[in-house]
Amino acid sequence: MLTQNLPDFWEQFYTERKAYWDLKKATPALQEFFTHPSCPASGSVLVPGAGFGYDAEAWALRGHQVLAVDFSPTAVDELDRLSRKHKNFKSLDLDLFELSPKDPKKGGAQFDIVYDYCTFSAIHPGRRDEYLEVWHKMLKDDGIVIALFYPLAQGSTMKGPPHNMSEVELMARLDGVFEVAERIPAEKSIESRQGKEEFWILKKSL
Ligand SMILES: C[S@@+](CC[C@H](N)C(=O)[O-])C[C@H]1O[C@@H](n2cnc3c(N)ncnc32)[C@H](O)[C@@H]1O
């Protein structure tokens, strides 16, 4: 069965040019967030499920060392192209659940920042706790997760992707794993996402 746990599920959207989430540019809300005092000026950034890498490239253009991960061949081709364009941008063709700080072929380091946009909502909700564990193991102890959660809404259905998430669900999953250090409204969401997304800054629970 073809589920979103498999690269072929995503590759189909890319090859049929139906990648409905693709903004074709860096997320305006992220560009705005770069000017926020809570946005770190430096530090390495891991972008799991980077897609065509616009946001990952925006982090690189800001001077950060970036590792962009995806497992869909078309997305990885584009990430590879960006890695040839920017010295501080690396691409990795990998199922993000395989990421490991200890294995050089699977990330090989912990990061100062893990950035997520539309990957949390893309993976199957049944794997969300597992995905939080990936963030946790790939993050330095004093690092932060910057998650632009979308769609953050009390929906009547979890059908997706994107699968929605609610504040109550997130707080339950994060409990004991991450502290919510700050929540910052997204100022420049695209029209269809306005009021449905928010930056959450997470720190490892001690
Ligand atoms: C909805 S798209 C979002 C892409 C990008 N973050 C953006 O905002 O444009 C989800 C991406 O995650 C990738 N993805 C989903 N599950 C993955 C997994 N287990 N390992 C690696 N990449 C994954 C897909 O191939 C796809 O490119």
Describe the structure.
The protein is α/β, with parallel strands linked by helices and 206 residues long. The chain has a single domain, classed as Rossmann fold (3-Layer(aba) Sandwich). Helix content is 27%, strand content 23%. It has six helices and seven strands. The chain has a seven-stranded mixed beta sheet with strand order 3-2-1-4-5-7-6. Helix 4 links the parallel strand 2 and strand 3. The protein is globular, with a radius of gyration of 16 Å. The mean pLDDT is 95. The chain binds S-adenosylmethionine. The site of S-adenosylmethionine has 19 residues, from strand 2.
Write the layout of secondary structure elements.
Layout: H1 7-15, H2 28-33, E1 45-48, H3 54-61, E2 66-70, H4 73-85, E3 89-93, E4 111-117, H5 128-138, E5 139-149, H6 167-174, E6 178-185, E7 198-204
Parallel strand pairs: 1-2, 1-4, 2-3, 4-5
Antiparallel strand pairs: 5-7, 6-7
Bound molecules: S-adenosylmethionine.
S-adenosylmethionine (SAM) binds next to strand 2.
